[in-house]
Amino acid sequence: MPEVGSDRRMHDAEERVVGTVPFVLDVRVDGMAHAKAVRSPFPHARIRSVRTDDALAVPGVLLVLTGADLDADPEVNPYYGSPRPDQPALAIGKARYAGEPVAVVVAETAAAAAAAAPLVEVDYEELPHVVDANEAARPGAPVVHDAWPDNGCGSWRVRHGDPDAALASADRVYTGVYHSPSASHVPMEPMVCIADWTGGGLEVWSATQAPHAVREALEKMFAVPPGGVRVRTLNVGGGYGAKTQVKIEPLVACAARAAGRPVRMELARDEVFLTAAKHAATVELTTGVRDDGTIVARRVKVNYNAGAYALSSPIASGQGLTRANGPYTIPNVAIESVATYTNTVPSCPFRGAMTSQLAFAYESQLDDIAADLGMDPLELRRKNLLRDGEVYPTGEVMHDLHYDELLDDLERAIDWGGPPEPAPPGKARGKGIAIMLKNTLTPTRSEARLRLVPDGRVHLDSSTVELGQGSHPTLLQLTADHLGISADRLVRGFPDTAHTPYDTTTSSSRSTHAMGTALERAAADLKRRLRALAADHWGVPAEEVEVADGHVAHPGTGERLPWEGLLAATGTGEVVGEGVFAPDFGLTLLEDPHDVRGRVTVHWHQGGAAAEVEVDLETGRVEVLRMHANCYAGRVVSPLRVRQQNQGCAVFGLGPTLFEELHYQDGTLTNPNLSDYMIPSILDVPAVITSSALEAGDESAELHGVGEMALPAVAPAVANALFAATGTRIDRLPLTPERVLRALGEHDPVKEETG
Amino acid sequence: MTAPVVREPGSTREACALLAADPWGTKVVSGGTALVLMMRQGLVAPQSLVALWRIPGLAGITRAGDVLRIGATTTLAEVAASPLVRSVAPSLAHACSVVGNPRIRNVATLGGNLAEADYASDPPAALASLGARCHATGPDGTREIPVRDLVTGFYETVLDHAELITHVDVPIAGPGRRATYLKYRTRSSEDRPCVGVAARLDADERGRVRELDVVVAAVAPTLHRVPAALDAAAGRAVDDALAGEVARSYAEAVEPLEDARGSAWYRRRMVEVLVRRAVQRFTAPEEVVRSA
Amino acid sequence: MTAEPEVADAVPSGSTRTVTLRLNGETRTVEIDQAATLLQVLRDQLGITSARSACGIGVCGACTVLVDGKVTSSCIMLAAQAHDREITTGEGLRLPSGELSAVQRAFVDRGAYQCSFCIPAMVLTVHAALQDPEAGRDVESVREYLAGNLCRCGTYPTILEAVADLVGAEPADGGAA
């Protein structure tokens, strides 16, 4: 019985539901102290001096560490960040955003640390600040980092065909500017970390999506050899990108080093808001079409707001570049994608990373074009779809594309041809669809190890993090099929960089494919080694030994020996199979970021969404009545989990579509809590929410990750439904009632119905 | 900073004495949902908390003649679920049922809700529209305060520091009474109101206005009410024209605030839409008390 | 000040005091900081993990516990307030035999969990909704009860499937795989 295709339950399902499944939030280490950050109240300020006397006088306070202390320590490189190490564990010299840690208090109790933090007196000299990335990109704007005087934090270009000529000769040219604001990931488990130097090296517990990235960063900071830092994680209570890369671990490690004892830091919700955010983006989009609807040219300029520190923005902006064309065949294209430093919370990938901002632009504009041409939006898409054999602006000849099926599925699911249900008086209804294309992180590296031990079980060593997406059962199911045994024989612990091999990150919807491939190779390696061991034992040629069903079979006698029997017979302790997935191509390996040519992804992620909405013409409030989310999955490992990912995309996506937005006033985030910043509740879920995962119907089809495929399509699908209902186009998210009402006013809505 | 001491007096008299003895260092805690939150956020740092939870007789819902009496420490969930409240003051039951979430309503009390004076809360408007009066007791004795006059500004009331609300009296009307509460949210279903409209109509036998009251919450620091517009409605038929006129008066008179739930411009528009819709509910033949 | 005799005992001398909780059927007496929230005491002193801090302001529901059978945000309730009261957490919903409760079983059977941080609180809320004589025993009533329990993974549709199983209703729309 193959495991793939079944809904293998998580092994710890009962503990998940009861509440005893372990999170890093639950970890306690003997003798640990507690840390609380002192944060800058100013978006941009020089730090003149820090007085710690009053804070140190609070009973239980052990120490206060400042950026100047780190700067003066010859054994610490306080700056981290990959690819651009621009972020200090504590602000040194300058604070670059309101909320940046400038000092940290370590105390016997969390309460004492929290009480002392406001007593740290920092003398600031305020500097001019900039919040908006377009302003920051202009000459003369406040400079966030002296080393990057133009505030540039990533710059990529691609050119394909002759876009200037094609736009000049197009029958019609459409230009729009589309804005997506910053948003907060809101993982329910906050960032939490314990660092402990007392065992000789540095041991870290962290709720992270990327334990090895944290290990590497800390090894670099403290100049310890690879393996000198050990990073462990447990179940992670949601990430959505917020816990990728390195976040609070450097600060906690510095605090623990200074304290000489283990230090724990758990962020309060406002601090989670101040640690990572979604890239706000402005997309300038110009598209040239022929009168028959054929798209002949496209020019895109996207500016992502990187926030105050780079994190992954220098590369993520390049991923934006490779996604900006959208899933259409366009012979003449010019794309420029930049990220720009500002004095705001540092930006990092946000479920549907870099793509949601683009899909909102290109899918909104496409429906405008359809309306102008008098074409059905679905037909306009079909006319221009990117299909196998077409050339992408990067020069790649595309394959394994499935947009025709995705569109057919959306058409069916939303009953595209049928009229919307009649709306009650004062309201209007409409339907919208959208699709998206997204690459996955490439180059990338996943290593896996399978260890057959004497009791016959196979240990699966992998650093993929269980975020609730079900990576654990998914990897078990895949491995079980590759080994030809039941997943019940597989054992897997939590990521631990001392024991589980290297993996770049658990994000970018990459793990099912990347780690799955590494495990496939590890399984083949394990079988090869078992074959060799059996061949040696029996004195027969290895290639004649059969390995199946947890047994090895003698080619001559047909004798079948269970694997554990083979280990016993040969006195072998364990047999280890290893596998690596590490494509030798990808975005960061290309020659010229200003002439992006070549393969940028192992495969293309494909998804879509359809929505039916009802708009209150008097209040502007949009209610999503019905939503369908779909994606191409290649092969479905677990129907339940794929459905949960698609529905999760629909629910998660409705937040930034309808109301999620980080607000800044005078450079300060004004809504860093879950009352002023709301996320969708169960009552915000559309009454009808459906999903589909398309399979190749071919056992050799590549597995695709499905964690964020429908998400970028949600906002444009809703915006297009609103357009269909009212004729009103809104080019700025979220689609708040106020924004909709203002737009309805400008559009001169059906006054007779509202008056 | 030291943790506050929790004092648990056994009578209102003692509670008031504790409050009067230390006007700067004490805070009353009833359900605590708002106060504990403010303490956690560092907005208040009392040295001692005067808890009401051991004082007998402060909770409960009773009817005495044509008055519905609700004790101050009655929870919002209890008010919302009370068959008595549902039968004689359904708009109040509804307003209490849409506050926050079930966890808040199980703990937060009606007296605490009033004393907190949160501009974006639902029950005060409903109470005010029904002509409710709260009873307060303090070192100088007891007094009655109409709910509509209770709040004087952002989180400010006419109550003295050492005064406690003991109960709220809601007049019960005979036939011809209709009342409604409309909560309008602009974001998640869990949002607080952008605009909350409580309306009450006492009609004569011919269905004409004997008394109309409309109280709008969440649009200004205090409850928004336009007496002139209400007076002008007396004797009129309850129809769309009346609803539109009252709504326009309320929209013109409001000095709207701005917050994450809407700008001043938007709030003024929504005051007009929502007041009109609230009054229009009385033009429908059947009793309607559910929210939009 | 005119302290009445029964009050004098309750006036504490320092910033700590003793509270007695009936936690998951067991009587537990602990010395607490006067300002401690119920959540802090449950997690830091009583070994409870199912109630979790996420928003700190009573809006997300991850810290839900039952106080005398009613859902409560333990992050904004003083532990002192819980003195002498019945506290039930996710751990305490298990049957005396150690088996899962019907609500817990329904969640497990439907796979109604992803990262699972919010799930024990969802389970307690569904449990309370089904026990509440004021609430209807149907999917819509339970859904309204759950409105204040946030899940960022977007597991809501699967949770509603589990609820439908519990109330014996057809799920509104499970979606096609």
Record keyword descriptors for this entry:
heterotrimer; B: alpha+beta; Uridine Diphospho-n-acetylenolpyruvylglucosamine Reductase, domain 2; Uridine Diphospho-n-acetylenolpyruvylglucosamine Reductase, domain 3; Enolase-like, domain 1; 3 domains; 5-stranded antiparallel sheet; 34% helix; globular; C: alpha+beta; 5-stranded mixed sheet; 5 strands; disordered N terminus; disordered C terminus
Would you kindly provide a brief summary of this structure?
The complex is a heterotrimer of chains A (755), B (292) and C (177). Chain A has 755 residues and is α+β, with helices and mostly antiparallel strands.
Write the topology of this structure.
The complex is a heterotrimer of chains A (755), B (292) and C (177).
Chain A lengths: L12 H6 L14 E7 L5 E7 L1 H4 L4 E6 H6 L6 E2 L6 E2 L5 E2 L5 E7 L2 H7 L4 E6 L6 H4 L15 E9 L2 H7 L2 E9 L11 E5 L5 E5 L4 H11 L7 E4 L16 H11 L3 E4 L2 H5 L7 E9 L5 E13 L5 H11 L8 E10 L13 H19 L3 H8 L18 H11 L13 E13 L6 E7 L5 E4 L9 H13 L6 E2 L19 H28 L7 E3 L2 E3 L6 E3 H8 L4 E7 L22 E13 L5 E13 L4 H20 L5 E2 L2 E2 L18 E8 L15 H16 L10 H11 L3 H4 L1
Parallel strand pairs in A: 1-14, 12-13, 16-17, 20-21, 27-30
Antiparallel strand pairs in A: 1-7, 2-6, 2-8, 3-7, 4-5, 9-17, 10-15, 11-12, 11-14, 15-16, 18-26, 19-20, 19-25, 22-23, 23-24, 26-27, 28-29
Helix pairs in contact in A: 11-18, 14-15, 15-16, 17-18
Chain B lengths: L4 E3 L4 H10 L4 E4 L3 H8 L7 E4 L9 E4 L2 E5 L4 H6 L1 H6 L1 H8 L4 H6 L2 H7 L6 H7 L3 E6 L2 E6 H4 E3 L2 E2 L6 E8 L5 E8 L10 E9 L5 E9 L9 H7 L6 H14 L10 H17 L12
Parallel strand pairs in B: 1-3, 2-3
Antiparallel strand pairs in B: 4-5, 5-10, 6-7, 6-10, 8-9, 11-12, 12-13
Helix pairs in contact in B: 11-12
Chain C lengths: L4 H4 L7 E8 L2 E8 L4 H8 L18 E4 L2 E4 L12 E3 L13 H9 L8 H13 L7 H7 L10 H12 L10
Parallel strand pairs in C: 1-5
Antiparallel strand pairs in C: 1-2, 3-4, 3-5
